[in-house]
């Protein structure tokens, strides 16, 4: 029993270490994006997000090899056995699977694993929302600081709560309402501070020159949080629990569908002049873009998933809040930006609201697990 307990503790702390790596990767990726769009003068957020999201399709490579291995075993077996195994492999796309997905999984058990067909349908349904959430967040880094973008992006949890309450997948209470109110005050203070700093600076951005650039970045960051809130809420409506879906398969097809569906937008943006297409002209640009794609997106999301499985979704959500102070510290040391008192108070209020919501959610999860145990007894 002590060995099992020790193994469980090692697994938990392994998840914490993975989470720490994710936090560092995400903050580092944000600074890389900020430098890429600003200091390196390569302001192509759509193209960079497109390349980042495309790396998700690499999740399909192990699955492809696994399916090829299964097919090889089928070919080497007898005709009867081969037919049986073939039916097992294609089972996810049989008529029963299609019928189940057509009913939005309402007839399935809450713990029923989604088939490959249902997972692919989910990837197709949510890939655009996923891309928009990442695109607006990345684009915000072209106009505002990493600290402001990170603070406002953390509002995604509160938008998830609000949208979830509308669709009745989240419960509202006084603590959560107060947390939302406090966070909104914090966001207002941060945005107002950015607005004042934008007025003091010369705005050389080509778009919306009548609006201070930091305020444009803040709006984009909030839009990213809203898209993320929509994405996570709708995903929760469709699958309920994380253990019902193969996340690697899901992410893989999200990347594949984004590659296939969104490439026409690149020449369109070039034509209308919103984002001219330009291949990176120097090796340094290529290195930054590719490292950010594979480390800041592909590897970090894999470690995030691993950390969630080794700890819990709530622990991971609380841990991600560490990106806010790290981003602020990075702005101070690497960018020389000293936050004002108003800005600092706003940041503290956002963090307080974020932690209050997730702590309350953690208590609700504990109460629910205790109720489930009492029902089993």
UniProtKB/TrEMBL annotation:
InterPro entries: EmrE-like (IPR037185), SLC35_F1/F2/F6 (IPR009262). The chain crosses the membrane at residues 12-33, 45-65, 122-143, 149-167, 174-193, 213-237, 249-272, 284-306, 313-334, 340-358. It is a multi-pass membrane protein. GO terms for cellular component: fungal-type vacuole membrane. Keywords: Membrane, Transmembrane, Transmembrane helix, Transport. It holds the Pfam family SLC35F. The keyword Flavoprotein does not apply. It is found in: Membrane. One of its GO terms (molecular function) is transmembrane transporter activity. The keyword Ribonucleoprotein does not apply. Belongs to the SLC35F solute transporter family. PANTHER family: SOLUTE CARRIER FAMILY 35 MEMBER F5, SOLUTE CARRIER FAMILY 35, MEMBER F5. This is EamA domain-containing protein. It comes from Mucor saturninus.
